[in-house]
Amino acid sequence: MEKRKILFQIVLSVLLIPLFMEAQVTDFDFNSTDINGQFNYEAFEPVEYKSSENTCTVPVQMPGWPVSLGASGYPSGICLADIYGDGLLAIIAGSSNGTFHVMNHLGNNLPGWPKTGLQPMRAKAAVCDIDPGYPGLEIVAVGENSTLYVWHNDGTDVAGWPQSVVSGFTGHCRSPIIFDIDGDGDLEIIVGKGDVSVFNHDGTMYPGWPKTLDGDCSATPSVADVDNDGMIEICALSWNSVYLWDNNGNPEPGWPLLNVAGEMSYAQPVLADLDDDGDLEIIHAYYDQWAVPSQNKVGIYHHDGTNFDNWPQNYPGPHAFVTPVVGDIDNDGDLEIFGGGHTFDVMAKHHTGETVAGWPVQIGTALDCSPIVFDIDDDGNRDVVIAEDGVVGLCYIWAFHGDGSTVADWPVPIPEPALVNSTAVGDVDGDGDIEIALLTMGGTVSLWTLENVPYRSYLTEWGTFFHDNWNTGWFHPLSPQNPAACFSGNSVNLNWNVNTEPDIAGYNIYRSETSGGPYVKINSTLITETFYNDISGTEDHFYCVTAEIFGDAESRLSAEVVCHTGWIEGVVSLTGGTGNIENVVVTAGSVSANPETNGFYSIGIYPGTYNVTASLDGYETDTIIGVLVEEDQTINGIDFTLYPLVGLDDKHLSSRITQIGNYPNPFNTETTITFFLPENTENTELSIYDIRGRKVITLINKKLSAGKHSFIWNGKDNNNKQVPGGIYFYKLKSGKFTSTKKMILMK
């Protein structure tokens, strides 16, 4: 390791000086073929990597990979995206030779690609549906000299594009961002070069933009609802200052923060809720050039521009190219913040500012690449994956556990330095395994596979450069809240709360036969509602729900739920008419059941309070309100008598009284008993009895008019004394009609 450090220091200036001058690098000869051929180099065949802890086999390149894009340059990210909707991920990358490539998992360019004769393409693209009338997704990319391109997935230009970006600075590492910033259903494109510009989907400039900073925009901006007000904000960095605008380009209260940094370069500001208060913090890396010795730092601010407690913090330096990515690597539920730059160390700190145990970790050579965070070895825990700089033959991708130890089978050699860049992870070929893609300095695209290691997207906190394929820099979506499951009939009904993020594409359902997993996704397409019926589910299955955004990032698993079910039971009878009892529909919430031939019905349902309704064509509907169902409890006696629909002058009208019920039930202090009379009555009595049949109190005993009536029982007897908790019955008697129902007084 020491020899590698010394060698790296010798070549450091040769390797990095061109980066600051925005110049191209000399091509390295790897005996590569063209884009459709095999890329062969002996030095990087799978080898045995020996560490002090283990000996293991390096993951392998996919068939047809690596691929040369035909030129060297400074890469800045790679996209993995399902542009056709066929379940396979395209590998999307540009080159400094003015070409742009969209390849399949075999390493071949897809129809319509590559694009040629472009500006040098050295920034990660974005993928989105900016033209909903055209099949599949579109690709948005920015050239080094500030031309913004938008293509359909077949390589044709989207109407209104390309466009020129307002720019006082040309260079790489600044990518386009996609979002519907005004909630009108059309996507906007945000790009920072010299200024920060926002374009409508049709190529026109969005009102209020561009915005001028106190210097060039030094990094890819980020976008989110930062202050949790339902409106979208845009965050950007100059070399020295931090800006936050609303969607119309107006500064947010407390912003900008001017001259807070000695220098900021290429590292996107990250937006994440670190303290679980509902609004987002702004996290940015910078270089304190006035410190002795020089020092990298990470600063964190609340949405109003005030400092986050215990920040800024020192990170390894001396230059801040590494995006301060966040992720939970120690399973404590909180986010850790990663960083470093131009150094051999990668740092991880808790949001409290304390260093994570086992960190910083040391890599072989300098670091300008940003990490990604996902479960690389299927142990259920998230790992950190990061590529290094260096020289040919001395470059690796590293993988670290949450405790800082090196993951088995890693590091993996890479053909050239990674520079300001990031790996991307996904299931590229649809076989369920992990694939990892990386574009390196010599124009080489690598695609490794980890055979038989499943890719679990719900364990991916940060899976690509700038977080997602919209490049938002926003750590989201959050897990769906309050999932519930119940077994009813021959299926499991699930529901959950809707996510509030504005870019939610849908939800996924994961099922396991054991608590804690392993979980298998059971929906083939995204669920756009907040409920799902698993027709193959049983009472013994365990479920979790995730949310997914349009930018192809998935939330963590929700809380696990199992079928905790209560039951509502009773008997339905028909008085008169020719209706079939088995056609009656008894409904509670979203669950329905049909009675058996003897009128008995049973509904399995989530715990909660329900209005229960019985209905049949040609008969009056009957409803009992306020039926309280508790977990694993059966509420019986919810009976119904249905009468044919007849006129008010029908001779049987006087015999029909609809008993509605009492709410709440059980109750603590008082409950309301409600019923309906179809006509005026001579005398109606409503009394309360205890479990031994003794009358406790008479609430009403008089003539009542037709209509709905409600009476409150406060838990007291005829002597105004409080009765003890327990089971009680209320009895309604009107003419020849009598009905008795149970209720529970809780003490």
As a percent range, the share of helical residues equals under 10%
How many strand segments? 54
Distance between the termini: 71 Å
Q: How much strand?
A: 35-45%
Radius of gyration: 33 Å
Mean of residue pLDDT? 86
What's the story with the biggest beta sheet? 5 strands, antiparallel
Total helices: the number is 1
Structural class category: mainly beta
Shape: elongated
Low-confidence stretches: 1-57, 647-655
Describe the structure.
β13 (188-192) and β14 form a beta hairpin. 3% of the residues lie in helices and 36% in strands. Mean pLDDT is 86; it is low at 1-57 and 647-655. It contains one helix and 54 strands. The radius of gyration is 33 Å and the shape is elongated. Strands 3, 4, 30, 31 and 32 form a five-stranded antiparallel beta sheet that branches. The chain is mostly beta strands and 747 residues long.
